[in-house]
Amino acid sequence: MVKRFIASWLGLAVVFFLVSYLAAAEKPDTFGEIYGILYIWLLWMFPVACLIELGINLVKKRKNKNK
């Protein structure tokens, strides 16, 4: 459960970081700018990963209740 949460959190953050980095009109050239973009995506994707994990757990509980 924890591994799945961390994998979804980091996976989403990295995917959105790459999309925003590659789509940028002016590429960030310093480590601070690149790290700042990644840090923002890590912060934004944490609640999204929490909601995904909550949804997975609710679906699992519903499936177990119907059996």
Question: Any overview of this molecule?
Answer:
The protein is mostly helical and 67 residues long. Helices cover 87% and strands 0% of the residues. The two termini are 22 Å apart.
Helix-strand blueprint:
Elements: H1 2-23, H2 31-66
Order of helices and strands: HH
In helices, the fraction of residues equals: over 70%
Distance between the termini: 22 Å
Rg, nearest Å? 16 Å
Average pLDDT works out at 90
Task: Detail the poorly predicted runs.
Answer: none
Oligomer: single chain
Largest sheet: none
Number of strands: 0
Count of separate DSSP helical elements: 2
**Shape label:** elongated
How much strand content do the residues show? under 5%
Structural class: mainly alpha
In summary, what is this structure?
This protein is an all-alpha fold and 67 residues long. Helices cover 87% and strands 0% of the residues. The protein is built from 2 helices and no strands.
Key terms for this structure?
2 helices; mainly alpha; 67 residues
